[in-house]
Amino acid sequence: MLKSVLIRLTFLLSLLAAVLVLTEQGRAFLRPVKQMLEFRAFAAGLLVETDVQEHQVVMPDGVTLATDIYLPEGGAAQKPVVLVRLPYGKRVYGEALHWVRLFTAHDYAVVVQDMRGRYGSGGVFAPYPNERGDGVATLDWIVAQDWALPRVGTIGCSALGEAQVLLAAERHPAHRAMIPMGAGGSIGTAQGAYGFFGFFEGGILNLASGFGWFHGQGGKIGDLMHAPAADYKKALQTLPVSEAVSRYRADDTDFEELLSGFDDPQIHKAWGYISDQDSFDIPTLMVDTWYDYGIGFSFQLFDMIRKNSPESRFLIAPATHCDMAGPLYNGSVGDVAVSPQGTTDLDGIYLSFMDAHLKGQVEPSLPTFQPYMLNRDDWLATEVWPPRAARAQKLYLRGEALSSTPDAAPDDRIFRSDPADPVPTIGGAICCTGDPDSRAGPLDQSPLEAREDLLIYTSEPFGNPLDIAGPLRAVLHVSTNVPDTDLVVRLTDVGPDGRSILIQEGALRLRYRNGFDAPELMQPDQGYRAEVSLRHIAYRVKTGHKLRLHVAGSSFPRLARNMNTGGDPHQESHPQMAQITLHSGAGAESFVELFTLPTP
Q: Which of 57, 124, 143, 312 could form a disulfide with 284 if both were Cys (CB 3.0 to 4.6 A apart)?
């Protein structure tokens, strides 16, 4: 009886603590749960009869990792295992507690472990040179326990998902299934991505997210898990950017190390990120959201995983980073309504996937790709991406229009990019900032459209719905008066009410126009071709609406400013104005390409 009371008290205290932990997805994760259920009902459901044991699991180098084991009472003596490894505190993080509740209720043993250097674990944390080896050693320890079957699945979002992907590349025989969510940041140089830790986009630092994470979560040993006080908006103005975190944290973080290593493939490899030399043989349920910063990386990872695991599946929710279920219950993501036909039981999907691969049960039939189409409010089911029925369509930049035909004559437009007065960020794939005023997702961009440092191209209204499903890219021909500058490209949905809702966006630092492994500065006023990825999307543009393209030189503070001098962008403090000419027509056609589905 006393044991049961203590267990219940532990869970209640953990749940209350989770409400207070403002980690990258903790707030987003708890919000839909509270909306689905009253607090009391949720707490009552969490109080499963579970034997909680804490262990210090010894790594090969002698470092010990704090590890909790949850063993359901009753059932088989040996159980399949769900492993959750995280840097956010194994007894205070809402998501980890949720997986304990879900899987112990279905006769799984659940192992939850603090990563090296975090909370109760020894050693020194870094993202993620130790995760592969520590994960393998933890699997070896699990399968040696008398309560464990040699069948282990892993689950979790963001850092919890990235650790899974790195572990899966080691191909441990006991690692039988994984459900990585929002885990695109585990990619390194694979497929030319250069996306380690989700820290960069198009070669540009994800400043708001990067500063927010390392300021709040950058501690490298267990007694430095706090977030020092900071004036967030002032901090993001710091120049040089490399000093932004160190001005607010006296202890060391890896912020500057990651900045210095972006275009060095050997650093990506040394830090453990995925390269083209890695391969996978594990059934995977990849889960991500349209407004996750790493959604493009997740598609690249999934392409690698499917080569040897054709039974793997990819589900894309209408949400922001790690808030998988939120919009399905809230009724919106950003400024776009979400009205699914019946509530999607995501937990049921996760459980069925684990049951199939860890318990040998029959898995419900799922398509290879299951993306949610915004504004059509349904889930697509397709075996390939883009869907086979989708056709590539180019919309050319012509005057101030998006046109199905290019201009036969040269068509140039000029804009300026001033690092001292950057185009402000409104929504999009921003996360983990630590700023409670920061909103993510498809928000109205019309407040930006009167700015003179933003080029705008708009289509005619569509007479029928336009269903977009696939990757988006812009091919732009540009010249500039500086050796380096940035392009930020944004596709929006313009309604009759004048709102200009973000569909998707992307960016490119022009020194990386030939690839992240081949940086090259520009010559003044010479023309260059630049291809900008705008990620992927499934989105219906309704009848009477228009498409609009924004072209700018910044999106601050989501992306760090380019000082436009051609020097080290993370060490510079003196901004220079850039004049950028966007060329189109006459053999140098600039366009945006999207994939569209036939509509009735």
A: 312
Residue linked to tokens 């046109």: 403
Q: What is the pLDDT along the chain (600 residues), one digit of tens a residue?
A: 333 333 443 444 444 433 333 333 333 333 333 433 333 333 334 334 455 778 899 999 999 999 999 999 887 789 999 999 999 999 999 999 999 999 999 999 999 999 999 999 999 999 999 999 999 999 999 999 999 999 999 999 999 999 999 999 999 999 999 999 999 999 999 999 998 899 999 999 999 999 999 999 999 999 999 999 999 999 999 999 999 999 999 999 999 999 988 888 999 999 999 999 999 999 999 999 999 999 999 999 999 999 999 999 999 999 999 999 999 988 999 999 998 765 689 999 999 999 999 999 998 888 999 999 999 999 999 999 999 999 999 999 999 999 999 988 889 999 999 999 999 999 999 998 878 788 999 999 999 999 999 999 999 999 999 999 999 999 999 999 999 999 999 999 999 999 999 999 999 999 999 999 999 999 998 999 999 999 999 999 999 999 999 999 999 999 999 999 999 999 999 999 999 999 999 889 999 999 999 987
Can you tell me the distance from the alpha carbon of 391 to that of 406, in angstroms, rounded to the nearest whole number? 18
| CB contact at 8 A, 320 and 291 | yes
What whole-number distance in Å separates Cα of residue 199 and Cα of residue 188? 10
DSSP 200-224: EETTEE-HHHHHHHHHHH---STT-
HEC string for 435-449: CCCCCCECCECHHHC
Type of residue at 9: L
Residue 522 CB neighbours (<10 A)? 20
Q: To the nearest 10°, report the CA torsion of 291, 296, 299, 305.
A: -120
Using N-to-C axis directions, what is the helix angle for 39-46 and 94-104, rounded to 10°? Answer: 60
Q: How far apart are the first and last CA of the chain?
A: 63
Maximal C-alpha separation, the chain: 84
At 523, list the tokens.
């010559």
Helix 131-143 vs helix 159-168: angle between axes, to the nearest 10 degrees? 80
What are the angstrom distances between the C-alpha of 316 and each of 284, 288, 292, 358, 481? 14, 5, 10, 23, 41
C-alpha span between 592 and 534 (Å, rounded): 9
Distance CA 117, CA 87 (A): 8
Report the C-alpha gap between 384 and 381 in whole angstroms: 9
pTM for this prediction: 0.92
| CA-wise closest residue to 236 among 251, 227, 248 | 248
CA–CA gap between residue 271 and residue 168 (Å, rounded): 16
Pairwise CA distance, residues 68 & 109, whole Å:
10
Give the DSSP letter string of 2-15: HHHHHHHHHHHHHH
C-beta of residue 493 within 8 angstroms of C-beta of residue 597: no
The DSSP result for 390-415, as a single string, is -EEEEEEEETTEEESS--SS-EEEEE
CB 30 within 8 A of CB 18: yes
Neighbours of 133 (CB within 10 A): 17
